Protein backbone atom coordinates (compact mmCIF):
# COMPACT_ATOMS: atom_id res chain seq x y z
CA UNK A 1 0.00 0.00 0.00
CA UNK A 2 1.25 3.48 -0.87
CA UNK A 3 1.14 6.24 1.72
CA UNK A 4 0.60 9.70 0.23
CA UNK A 5 1.81 12.04 2.94
CA UNK A 6 0.58 15.60 3.19
CA UNK A 7 0.28 17.45 -0.11
CA UNK A 8 2.88 15.42 -1.99
CA UNK A 9 2.13 14.45 -5.63
CA UNK A 10 -0.40 11.69 -6.13
CA UNK A 11 0.97 8.68 -8.06
CA UNK A 12 -0.87 7.91 -11.29
CA UNK A 13 -2.10 4.57 -10.00
CA UNK A 14 -3.87 6.30 -7.13
CA UNK A 15 -5.91 8.67 -9.28
CA UNK A 16 -9.37 7.85 -10.57
CA UNK A 17 -9.99 5.51 -7.65
CA UNK A 18 -12.78 4.88 -5.18
CA UNK A 19 -12.12 6.91 -2.03
CA UNK A 20 -13.23 6.01 1.50
CA UNK A 21 -13.01 9.15 3.62
CA UNK A 22 -12.97 9.52 7.40
CA UNK A 23 -10.82 9.59 10.53
CA UNK A 24 -11.01 5.79 10.97
CA UNK A 25 -9.55 5.83 14.49
CA UNK A 26 -9.61 2.20 15.58
CA UNK A 27 -10.53 0.82 12.14
CA UNK A 28 -13.34 -0.89 14.06
CA UNK A 29 -16.08 -3.11 12.66
CA UNK A 30 -18.16 -0.12 11.58
CA UNK A 31 -15.19 1.30 9.69
CA UNK A 32 -14.51 -2.12 8.20
CA UNK A 33 -18.04 -2.22 6.76
CA UNK A 34 -17.43 1.16 5.11
CA UNK A 35 -14.08 0.01 3.70
CA UNK A 36 -15.72 -3.16 2.40
CA UNK A 37 -18.28 -1.01 0.58
CA UNK A 38 -15.45 0.98 -1.03
CA UNK A 39 -13.73 -2.24 -2.11
CA UNK A 40 -16.97 -3.57 -3.62
CA UNK A 41 -17.55 -0.34 -5.56
CA UNK A 42 -13.97 -0.41 -6.84
CA UNK A 43 -14.48 -3.94 -8.14
CA UNK A 44 -17.70 -2.84 -9.86
CA UNK A 45 -15.93 0.06 -11.55
CA UNK A 46 -12.71 -1.85 -12.23
CA UNK A 47 -10.50 0.69 -10.43
CA UNK A 48 -8.30 0.84 -7.33
CA UNK A 49 -9.56 1.96 -3.96
CA UNK A 50 -7.94 3.89 -1.16
CA UNK A 51 -8.52 5.99 1.92
CA UNK A 52 -8.39 9.70 2.72
CA UNK A 53 -7.71 10.40 6.39
CA UNK A 54 -6.35 13.23 8.53
CA UNK A 55 -3.43 13.90 10.87
CA UNK A 56 -3.45 15.02 13.56
CA UNK A 57 -6.91 13.98 14.70
CA UNK A 58 -9.16 17.03 14.16
CA UNK A 59 -10.12 17.16 17.82
CA UNK A 60 -6.43 17.40 18.75
CA UNK A 61 -6.01 20.30 16.33
CA UNK A 62 -8.89 22.26 17.83
CA UNK A 63 -8.02 21.36 21.45
CA UNK A 64 -4.23 20.77 21.58
CA UNK A 65 -4.22 20.73 25.39
CA UNK A 66 -6.68 17.82 25.38
CA UNK A 67 -5.02 15.09 23.29
CA UNK A 68 -7.31 12.36 22.05
CA UNK A 69 -6.83 8.79 23.28
CA UNK A 70 -5.95 7.43 19.84
CA UNK A 71 -6.90 3.78 19.41
CA UNK A 72 -4.75 3.53 16.29
CA UNK A 73 -2.13 6.25 15.78
CA UNK A 74 -1.13 6.92 12.19
CA UNK A 75 1.32 4.05 11.62
CA UNK A 76 -0.96 1.37 13.05
CA UNK A 77 -4.04 2.75 11.27
CA UNK A 78 -2.20 2.54 7.94
CA UNK A 79 -1.10 -1.01 8.73
CA UNK A 80 -4.68 -2.13 9.41
CA UNK A 81 -6.11 -0.41 6.34
CA UNK A 82 -3.42 -2.02 4.17
CA UNK A 83 -4.35 -5.41 5.61
CA UNK A 84 -7.93 -4.85 4.41
CA UNK A 85 -6.72 -4.41 0.84
CA UNK A 86 -6.50 -0.67 0.20
CA UNK A 87 -4.09 0.40 -2.54
CA UNK A 88 -3.21 3.68 -0.84
CA UNK A 89 -3.92 6.02 2.04
CA UNK A 90 -3.73 9.77 1.52
CA UNK A 91 -3.05 11.48 4.85
CA UNK A 92 -4.10 15.12 4.71
CA UNK A 93 -2.55 17.53 7.21
CA UNK A 94 -5.34 18.82 9.42
CA UNK A 95 -4.28 22.41 10.02
CA UNK A 96 -5.68 25.94 9.77
CA UNK A 97 -5.51 25.89 5.97
CA UNK A 98 -7.54 22.68 5.71
CA UNK A 99 -10.01 23.53 8.44
CA UNK A 100 -10.73 26.88 6.78
CA UNK A 101 -11.74 25.37 3.43
CA UNK A 102 -15.42 25.44 2.59
CA UNK A 103 -16.96 22.02 1.87
CA UNK A 104 -17.02 22.90 -1.83
CA UNK A 105 -13.36 23.95 -1.89
CA UNK A 106 -12.28 20.88 0.08
CA UNK A 107 -13.96 18.50 -2.35
CA UNK A 108 -12.80 20.37 -5.45
CA UNK A 109 -9.19 20.71 -4.32
CA UNK A 110 -8.51 17.36 -2.64
CA UNK A 111 -10.99 14.82 -4.03
CA UNK A 112 -11.39 16.10 -7.58
CA UNK A 113 -8.20 17.96 -8.57
CA UNK A 114 -5.63 15.90 -6.64
CA UNK A 115 -7.20 12.44 -6.51
CA UNK A 116 -9.65 12.62 -9.45
CA UNK A 117 -12.00 10.45 -7.40
CA UNK A 118 -14.33 8.18 -9.35
CA UNK A 119 -16.50 7.50 -6.31
CA UNK A 120 -16.54 8.54 -2.64
CA UNK A 121 -17.69 6.35 0.24
CA UNK A 122 -18.42 7.97 3.60
CA UNK A 123 -20.23 7.33 6.85
CA UNK A 124 -23.67 8.72 7.63
CA UNK A 125 -22.20 11.00 10.32
CA UNK A 126 -19.09 12.28 8.54
CA UNK A 127 -18.89 16.07 8.20
CA UNK A 128 -16.23 18.13 6.47
CA UNK A 129 -15.23 21.66 5.57
CA UNK A 130 -15.27 24.89 7.55
CA UNK A 131 -17.50 24.61 10.61
CA UNK A 132 -18.23 20.96 9.69
CA UNK A 133 -20.92 22.28 7.35
CA UNK A 134 -20.34 19.61 4.72
CA UNK A 135 -22.66 16.60 5.18
CA UNK A 136 -23.37 13.39 3.26
CA UNK A 137 -26.12 15.30 1.43
CA UNK A 138 -23.57 17.98 0.51
CA UNK A 139 -21.20 15.32 -0.83
CA UNK A 140 -24.01 13.81 -2.89
CA UNK A 141 -24.82 17.17 -4.48
CA UNK A 142 -21.14 17.88 -5.19
CA UNK A 143 -20.72 14.43 -6.71
CA UNK A 144 -23.54 15.09 -9.15
CA UNK A 145 -22.08 18.50 -10.04
CA UNK A 146 -18.45 17.40 -10.34
CA UNK A 147 -18.86 13.94 -11.83
CA UNK A 148 -18.19 11.36 -9.10
CA UNK A 149 -20.47 8.86 -7.40
CA UNK A 150 -21.24 8.83 -3.68
CA UNK A 151 -22.15 6.02 -1.30
CA UNK A 152 -23.25 6.82 2.25
CA UNK A 153 -22.92 3.92 4.70
CA UNK A 154 -25.59 3.82 7.40
CA UNK A 155 -24.86 3.29 11.09
CA UNK A 156 -23.42 -0.18 11.71
CA UNK A 157 -24.51 -2.00 14.86
CA UNK A 158 -23.66 -5.19 16.67
CA UNK A 159 -25.89 -8.13 15.87
CA UNK A 160 -26.49 -8.82 19.58
CA UNK A 161 -29.60 -8.04 21.60
CA UNK A 162 -28.60 -4.43 22.28
CA UNK A 163 -27.82 -3.52 18.65
CA UNK A 164 -25.20 -1.11 19.91
CA UNK A 165 -23.52 0.99 17.21
CA UNK A 166 -19.78 0.55 16.81
CA UNK A 167 -17.94 3.71 17.79
CA UNK A 168 -14.41 4.78 18.63
CA UNK A 169 -15.74 6.61 21.71
CA UNK A 170 -17.34 3.51 23.21
CA UNK A 171 -14.17 1.48 22.56
CA UNK A 172 -12.09 4.12 24.37
CA UNK A 173 -14.48 3.96 27.31
CA UNK A 174 -14.26 0.16 27.41
CA UNK A 175 -10.46 0.33 27.52
CA UNK A 176 -10.50 3.05 30.19
CA UNK A 177 -12.50 0.67 32.39
CA UNK A 178 -10.37 -2.40 31.62
CA UNK A 179 -13.09 -4.10 29.55
CA UNK A 180 -10.63 -5.47 27.03
CA UNK A 181 -12.74 -8.28 25.48
CA UNK A 182 -15.63 -5.84 24.97
CA UNK A 183 -13.29 -3.49 23.11
CA UNK A 184 -12.03 -6.41 20.99
CA UNK A 185 -15.56 -7.37 19.96
CA UNK A 186 -16.18 -3.84 18.69
CA UNK A 187 -12.79 -3.59 17.01
CA UNK A 188 -12.91 -7.04 15.41
CA UNK A 189 -9.33 -7.63 16.59
CA UNK A 190 -7.40 -7.31 19.84
CA UNK A 191 -6.55 -3.72 20.71
CA UNK A 192 -2.90 -3.25 19.87
CA UNK A 193 -0.10 -0.82 20.62
CA UNK A 194 2.66 -0.35 18.05
CA UNK A 195 5.82 1.28 19.37
CA UNK A 196 9.58 1.33 19.64
CA UNK A 197 11.37 -0.41 22.51
CA UNK A 198 13.37 2.20 24.42
CA UNK A 199 15.76 1.99 27.36
CA UNK A 200 14.13 2.40 30.74
CA UNK A 201 15.72 2.50 34.17
CA UNK A 202 16.16 -1.34 34.02
CA UNK A 203 14.58 -1.69 37.45
CA UNK A 204 12.69 -4.79 36.31
CA UNK A 205 15.88 -6.59 35.39
CA UNK A 206 17.25 -6.11 38.92
CA UNK A 207 14.28 -7.98 40.40
CA UNK A 208 14.21 -10.78 37.83
CA UNK A 209 11.54 -9.41 35.50
CA UNK A 210 13.15 -7.56 32.56
CA UNK A 211 10.64 -5.57 30.55
CA UNK A 212 10.24 -3.92 27.19
CA UNK A 213 9.55 -0.21 27.61
CA UNK A 214 7.39 1.38 24.94
CA UNK A 215 6.58 5.08 24.69
CA UNK A 216 2.89 5.82 24.23
CA UNK A 217 1.37 8.72 22.34
CA UNK A 218 0.01 11.58 24.41
CA UNK A 219 -3.59 10.99 25.41
CA UNK A 220 -3.31 7.19 25.71
CA UNK A 221 -5.47 6.35 28.69
CA UNK A 222 -6.35 2.67 29.19
CA UNK A 223 -7.07 1.24 32.62
CA UNK A 224 -4.01 1.06 34.87
CA UNK A 225 -3.16 -2.54 35.59
CA UNK A 226 -1.60 -5.84 34.52
CA UNK A 227 -2.71 -7.44 31.26
CA UNK A 228 -2.25 -10.71 29.43
CA UNK A 229 -0.60 -9.70 26.15
CA UNK A 230 0.87 -11.16 22.99
CA UNK A 231 3.94 -9.49 21.48
CA UNK A 232 5.73 -9.79 18.15
CA UNK A 233 8.17 -7.95 15.94
CA UNK A 234 6.27 -5.42 13.79
CA UNK A 235 8.80 -5.71 10.95
CA UNK A 236 8.40 -9.47 10.54
CA UNK A 237 5.02 -10.49 9.16
CA UNK A 238 4.23 -14.01 10.26
CA UNK A 239 6.60 -13.73 13.23
CA UNK A 240 5.72 -15.84 16.27
CA UNK A 241 3.87 -14.30 19.18
CA UNK A 242 5.59 -14.12 22.56
CA UNK A 243 3.36 -14.45 25.61
CA UNK A 244 3.70 -11.64 28.08
CA UNK A 245 2.42 -9.76 31.10
CA UNK A 246 1.93 -6.11 30.20
CA UNK A 247 1.80 -3.23 32.64
CA UNK A 248 0.18 0.11 32.06
CA UNK A 249 0.49 2.47 35.00
CA UNK A 250 2.50 4.84 37.15
CA UNK A 251 4.60 2.42 39.23
CA UNK A 252 3.04 3.44 42.57
CA UNK A 253 5.47 1.23 44.53
CA UNK A 254 8.38 3.37 43.29
CA UNK A 255 6.68 6.82 43.27
CA UNK A 256 7.99 7.71 39.80
CA UNK A 257 5.21 10.12 38.88
CA UNK A 258 5.37 8.90 35.26
CA UNK A 259 3.18 6.68 33.09
CA UNK A 260 4.62 3.55 31.50
CA UNK A 261 3.84 0.69 29.15
CA UNK A 262 6.11 -2.17 30.19
CA UNK A 263 5.91 -5.74 28.97
CA UNK A 264 7.62 -8.77 30.48
CA UNK A 265 8.04 -11.47 27.83
CA UNK A 266 7.55 -14.81 29.53
CA UNK A 267 10.41 -17.17 28.73
CA UNK A 268 12.38 -14.62 26.70
CA UNK A 269 15.54 -12.77 27.68
CA UNK A 270 17.07 -10.94 24.74
CA UNK A 271 17.89 -7.48 23.44
CA UNK A 272 15.05 -5.83 21.53
CA UNK A 273 16.08 -2.19 21.96
CA UNK A 274 15.23 -0.07 18.94
CA UNK A 275 12.85 -2.67 17.49
CA UNK A 276 9.23 -1.78 16.81
CA UNK A 277 6.88 -4.22 18.47
CA UNK A 278 3.16 -4.96 18.32
CA UNK A 279 1.56 -5.55 21.72
CA UNK A 280 -1.91 -7.14 21.64
CA UNK A 281 -3.98 -6.69 24.78
CA UNK A 282 -5.99 -9.87 25.44
CA UNK A 283 -7.49 -9.26 28.89
CA UNK A 284 -6.99 -7.49 32.19
CA UNK A 285 -5.37 -9.59 34.94
CA UNK A 286 -5.67 -7.16 37.85
CA UNK A 287 -5.70 -3.45 38.69
CA UNK A 288 -2.50 -1.58 39.51
CA UNK A 289 -1.63 -1.35 43.21
CA UNK A 290 1.07 -0.30 45.63
CA UNK A 291 3.09 -2.99 47.43
CA UNK A 292 4.64 -2.74 50.86
CA UNK A 293 7.94 -4.27 49.75
CA UNK A 294 9.90 -5.39 46.70
CA UNK A 295 9.54 -9.03 47.84
CA UNK A 296 5.77 -8.66 47.89
CA UNK A 297 5.85 -7.11 44.40
CA UNK A 298 8.02 -9.95 43.03
CA UNK A 299 5.70 -12.59 44.49
CA UNK A 300 2.72 -10.91 42.87
CA UNK A 301 4.52 -10.65 39.52
CA UNK A 302 5.12 -14.40 39.54
CA UNK A 303 1.40 -14.90 40.07
CA UNK A 304 0.61 -12.38 37.34
CA UNK A 305 2.74 -14.29 34.82
CA UNK A 306 1.00 -17.56 35.66
CA UNK A 307 -2.40 -15.91 35.29
CA UNK A 308 -1.36 -14.28 32.04
CA UNK A 309 -0.37 -17.64 30.56
CA UNK A 310 -3.69 -19.18 31.64
CA UNK A 311 -5.58 -16.29 30.06
CA UNK A 312 -3.62 -16.54 26.81
CA UNK A 313 -4.19 -20.29 26.58
CA UNK A 314 -7.94 -19.81 27.10
CA UNK A 315 -8.03 -17.04 24.47
CA UNK A 316 -6.23 -19.24 21.97
CA UNK A 317 -8.87 -21.92 22.42
CA UNK A 318 -11.81 -19.49 22.21
CA UNK A 319 -10.75 -16.24 20.55
CA UNK A 320 -13.67 -13.75 20.47
CA UNK A 321 -12.38 -12.01 17.33
CA UNK A 322 -11.44 -15.09 15.28
CA UNK A 323 -14.57 -14.71 13.13
CA UNK A 324 -13.60 -11.25 11.85
CA UNK A 325 -11.16 -10.47 9.02
CA UNK A 326 -8.67 -8.40 11.04
CA UNK A 327 -8.88 -10.88 13.92
CA UNK A 328 -7.97 -13.71 11.55
CA UNK A 329 -5.07 -11.74 10.06
CA UNK A 330 -3.86 -10.80 13.54
CA UNK A 331 -3.84 -14.44 14.63
CA UNK A 332 -1.74 -15.29 11.58
CA UNK A 333 0.73 -12.52 12.35
CA UNK A 334 -0.16 -10.65 9.15
CA UNK A 335 -0.92 -7.28 10.74
Q: How would you describe what is shown here?
A:
By secondary structure, this protein is of the alpha/beta class. The protein has two domains: 152 residues, HUPs (Rossmann fold), CATH 3.40.50; 154 residues, Elongation Factor Tu (Ef-tu), domain 3 (Beta Barrel), CATH 2.40.30.30. The chain has a six-stranded parallel sheet with strand order 1-4-3-2-5-6, with helices on both faces. It has a six-stranded antiparallel barrel with strand order 7-8-11-10-9-12. A hairpin with an 8-residue loop joins β9 and β10. α7 runs antiparallel to α8. The two termini are 13 Å apart. About 2% of the residues have low confidence.
Number of strands: 12
Gross morphology is elongated
Structural class: alpha/beta
- Terminal residue distance: 13 Å
Radius of gyration: 21 Å
In the CATH hierarchy, the architecture of the largest domain is Beta Barrel
Question: What is the number of helical segments per DSSP (H or I, 4+ residues)?
Answer: 11
Instruction: List low-pLDDT spans.
Output: 253-258
What is the CATH T-level topology of the largest domain? Elongation Factor Tu (Ef-tu), domain 3
Helix content: 25-40%
What is the name of the CATH superfamily of the largest domain?
Answer: Riboflavin kinase-like
Largest beta sheet, briefly? 6 strands, parallel
Strand order of the largest sheet: 1-4-3-2-5-6
**Percent in strands:** 15-25%
Query: What's the domain count?
Result: 2
Q: What would CATH call the class of the largest domain?
A: Mainly Beta
Mean model confidence by pLDDT: 92
Order of helices and strands: EEHEHHEHHEHEHHEHEEEEEHH
